Each structure stands twice: as structure tokens, then as C-alpha cells.
């Protein structure tokens, strides 16, 4: 068994090191991760320059590109073999609801999924690693379960872990994505040279956190496991848009 591990927080991130330690005796591990933090990079690929691939003293491979670059390069030549699993994380912060569209953690896993490899993304919901051991335990158990008893097909699983001591965790739940309110406003700041610059504001609070959502599972103290797909087609609206476009041609 061979697992390709990546993340979006960068190859020095604590969550990545902890994840690799947790999985080391389950399979052969290759780490290909971004050189620096690319949180919020989504599925971006670097197409305007070549990418450098370097080896850290601990054996991790790092790339001066995005999470998607890392997994893409690994899958299309660097690795030389097809991994049995792609695992991303453990992210420093939640990736629930709409976060999944922006997340580089999810994107690294999604890149494996696009190549037909089962892929899991792990995030600890609060920043700061307070209960990283809980996310490590969840990741180890889910990966071991996937290796022993595959979920079937090229699944893409988005896993969020509540920031609780392990003995307060209530279990795991399969969930659907909730929804967030729109993001909070941009934060203006001044540079020493008098230019006004803007920080992107924090994500919105949960809007749909109803029963069955990732937000609800986390709130209740459960690990949230959401199966994702990447086909964004709005099937329910397709018939209406077919008619609407048809009127233009009539
Ligand atoms: Mn991140």
C-alpha cells in the first residue's frame, strides 16, 4: 500500500507531520506538499512558470506551487507508481460548507480523486492545533478502514474533526455540506507608504447548520465525513435553462 500525502498549510505544518506519523505504519508514505502556506488556493494549477521539486531532510518533498500542483506532479510523473490513496491535511482550521470551494486542503484530495484515486481531506475545525491528537486519531482510523474495507470507487471524503479532547469525541457521522452566511467585510489597512490595502475578511458563520450537515455534526461533537463530487452542474435547473436558452434561438 502506498499513500500520497499533501496539505495546503505547507510542508512544515504541524498537522502534516502529525498525519504522516499517524499513517506511517499503515502504508508506504510519500509526502509532496507546498513550500509555503497556500490556504485558500482552491484547485489552482501553476501554468506560468516551471515548478521546483526539492527534498527536505525529513524526507518530505516540497514544491514551490499550490496543493493541486503538488498532487498533480506526483500523479503524473514524480511518484512513478499510482498511489492507493491520497490523503490531505491535517488542516489548521475548518473546511465545512462553502469553505470546500476555496480550500487547498480539499483541492489536494480532489486532485487525487480526479485521477481516480480514493482521496481523503482532514481538517481540525479550530485553528491552533489545541486537540490535534483527536484529528490524528480520526485520520488514522478512517484511513485504516479505507485500506481494509474500501468505501468503493474513487471516493472524495471531506473530514472535519471537532477541536475536542479525544475522550469527549462522540463518534463519526456521514454528513452533507452545510452553508455559510456571506463572508465578513474586507479589512482595510494602511501600508507604511500610505497605500490603503485590504485583507480578505473571515468566512461567514454557519447559515444552514441543520440536522445532517457537517456544521451540525461538529457542533454535536462528532467527526463529520462528507462525500464530495466535483460535477457542479445544477441538474434541477438544467431543464429550465434548456427552455430559456431555446427561447433565444426561436
Ligand atoms: Mn490551510
Report on this structure.
With 250 residues, the chain is an alpha/beta fold. It has helices at residues 14-23, 67-78, 99-102, 104-114, 132-148, 214-219, 235-249; strands at 2-6, 28-34, 53-55, 61-63, 85-92, 119-124, 156-161, 171-174, 179-180, 187-190, 196-199, 206-208, 222-227. The strands form 3 sheets. Strands 3-4-2-1-5-6-7-13-8 form a 9-stranded mixed beta sheet, with helices on both faces. The protein has a two-stranded antiparallel ribbon with strand order 9-12. Strands 10-11 form a two-stranded antiparallel sheet. A hairpin with a 5-residue loop joins β3 (53-55) and β4. α1 crosses α5 and α2 runs parallel beside α4 (104-114). The site of manganese (II) ion has 7 residues, from β5 and α4.
Amino acid at each position: 500500500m502506498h499513500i500520497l500525502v499533501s496539505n495546503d498549510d505547507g510542508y512544515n505544518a504541524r498537522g502534516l507531520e502529525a498525519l504522516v506519523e499517524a499513517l506511517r505504519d499503515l502504508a508506504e508514505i510519500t509526502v509532496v506538499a507546498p513550500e509555503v502556506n497556500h490556504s485558500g488556493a482552491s484547485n489552482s494549477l501553476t501554468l506560468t512558470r516551471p515548478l521546483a521539486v526539492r527534498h527536505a531532510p525529513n524526507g518530505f518533498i516540497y514544491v514551490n506551487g499550490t496543493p493541486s500542483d503538488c498532487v498533480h506532479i506526483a500523479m503524473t510523473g514524480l511518484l512513478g507508481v499510482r498511489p492507493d490513496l491520497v490523503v490531505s491535511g491535517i488542516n489548521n482550521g475548518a473546511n465545512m460548507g462553502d469553505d470546500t470551494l476555496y480550500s487547498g486542503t480539499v483541492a489536494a484530495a480532489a486532485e487525487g480523486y480526479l485521477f481516480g484515486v480514493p482521496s481523503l481531506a482532514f481538517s481540525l475545525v479550530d485553528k491552533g492545533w489545541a486537540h490535534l491528537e483527536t484529528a490524528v486519531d480520526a485520520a488514522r482510523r478512517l484511513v485504516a478502514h479505507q485500506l481494509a474495507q474500501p468505501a468503493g470507487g474513487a471516493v472524495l471524503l471531506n473530514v472535519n474533526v471537532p477541536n475536542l479532547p479525544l475522550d469527549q469525541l462522540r463518534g463519526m457521522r456521514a454528513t452533507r455540506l452545510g452553508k455559510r452566511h456571506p463572508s465578513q467585510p474586507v479589512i482595510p489597512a494602511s501600508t507604511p507608504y500610505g497605500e490603503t490595502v485590504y485583507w480578505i475578511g473571515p468566512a461567514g458563520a454557519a447559515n444552514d447548520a441543520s440536522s445532517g450537515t457537517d456544521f451540525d455534526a461538529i457542533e454535536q461533537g462528532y467527526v463529520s465525513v462528507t462525500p464530495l463530487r466535483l460535477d457542479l452542474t445544477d441538474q434541477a435547473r438544467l431543464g429550465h435553462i434548456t427552455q430559456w436558452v431555446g427561447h433565444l434561438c426561436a
